[in-house]
Amino acid sequence: MPRTDRASTVVVVVVLAVTVVGAGCVSFSGSDPLESEFTDDVESAEPPETMSATLEVEIELEGERETISEPVWIADDGTSRIGDLDDGSDFLRVDDGDSVWYYDGETETATSRDSNATAHTYFSFVYDEQDRYAEEYELTDVEETTSDGDDAFRADFDPPSNETIDRSIGVSVGNTEYILPFETSDVDGTHADSVELVTDDEYHFPLEYHVQDDDRSLEVSITYTDVTFDEELADDRFTFEPSNATAV
Fold it and tell me: Where are the transmembrane segments (predicted)?
């Protein structure tokens, strides 16, 4: 059952929007063979054909915690679905390759825009972001681990000092759409002191993100659980008919 600590939060998040202010890159140390191998594997990784999972997000800021959980289905042709109305979701996002539909269960309204799935898929957005980590952050440690019982790699990154966490967090691909899950706390300008990334050992899909700002007592964790790769997904997962909603 999808859950959130606050009823008015109706969206899930995918990748934390972390921005470098100014020019310059930081290279990885490469002193450990596993570090070099991990970086090469991440930069050359290819996504699976399909993926289904539960996306779990936990945000804690100065002792105030917010949690969000939604099912996700993703295909390499750019189609994707976040949320399941039959399982109690209040929010639904469906990209059928032609249009992206957003449904708000509380107001029973649906909105849409043209899809950019052919140019920017859900997978490419996620993989491009972790490629940037490998290219621009200092990789301080890599070790073998598990995530939700599956073999994985955990990598610790030291971001540049001018790396900030935006208030917004991206839920979409292509035409960047930013959703604001922080309802009362302004986190603009918050600095990322550490970034931890956990990838599966086959596709190097980012199963977990953990970002921390020590000064603001901010921790953000994004975790995919119950993950399955390369299983056939029903076509109706990526369709939406707003017949019972008001299209706006």
Answer: none
Phi/psi at 41 (5° precision): -65, -40
The pLDDT tens digits of the residues spanning 3-42 come to: 333 322 323 334 444 433 332 333 334 456 788 889 899 9
CA dihedral 227, 231, 236, 237 (to 10 degrees): 10
Q: Which domains are seen in the chain, by residue range?
A: 15-243 (2.50.20.10)
Dihedral (Cα; 204, 87, 69, 184), 10-degree rounding: 150
Is the CB of residue 121 less than 8 Å from the CB of residue 108? no
Closest Cα to residue 89, out of 71, 101, 65, 110?
A: 71
Which tokens sit at 31? 């002193």
The predicted-structure confidence for 176-213, as pLDDT tens digits, reads as follows: 333 333 333 344 455 667 889 999 999 999 999 888 87
120, with CB counted inside 10 A (0-12, 13-18, 19+), is: middle
H or E element that contains 42: helix 33-44
Nearest Cα to 153, choosing from 4, 35, 73, 1?
A: 35
Quote the CA–CA distance of 75 and 219 in Å, as a whole number: 30
- Do residues 211 and 192 lie in contact, with contact meaning Cβ atoms separated by under 8 Å? yes
- Residue positions counted in the chain: 248
Structure tokens at 228: 């399955």
- Chain centroid to CA 243: how far? 30
